[in-house]
Amino acid sequence: MTIEGELTQGGQHNYEETVEIIGKLKRSLRVHVLGPNWERSFVELSETEALFLGLKAPLAMSGDLTEAAECTVVGPCGEINLKSGVIVPKPHLRCSPIQSRELGVSNGDRISVEILGTSKKVLEDVAVRVHPTFQLRVEINADYARELWIARTSHARLID
Questions:
Q1: Mind listing the pLDDT tens digit for each residue in 76-105?
Q2: For residue 95, which of 125, 124, 129 has the smallest C-alpha distance?
Q3: Which helix H or strand E contains 51, and what residues bound it?
């Protein structure tokens, strides 16, 4: 596969190649493949995208596929059925170990985050993910961002 570009987190990238995700309603979405490779293949969609495909995808952390929805993935070399493959990603804070110490948080902690702006927007139960390649960033899915009227990169602060 051919790397197209780097993502905001170090060591993560998207490939030029795309795959088609097919759900229960036989509708499909074409998505880019992201890397690096995980131990198991899975798909992260917004709730709107999952509903469009007819899937009841759970809100879960990346890699937590215990309740993931089933889908078919079609690519240039064939197709596979993922029995537990689709989730809607939970909001999470990514940071490096140094940033983690500066903020007083640890991997796996649950925190509250206030999105700074003209009106108060608080994200509850945000999971902390710490890794040496991560840069400080709160990540939320597109539907949640729209619900909170977040249209672009915003500043945030941790709430004690």
A1: 889 999 999 999 999 999 999 999 999 999
A2: 129
A3: helix 47-52
If one counts every other C-beta atom within 10 angstroms of the C-beta of residue 37, the result is 9
pLDDT in tens, 21-50: 999 998 999 998 888 877 888 999 999 999
Task: Please state the domain extents for the chain.
Answer: 3-89, 92-159
CA 73 vs CA 100, 118, 158: distances in Å = 36, 42, 38
Q: Distance of CA 30 to CAs 7, 17, 58, Å?
A: 19, 10, 20
Q: What pLDDT is stored for residue 93 in this prediction?
A: 95
**Non-local CB neighbours of 44 within 8 Å, separated by 6+ positions:** 62, 86, 87, 88, 89, 141
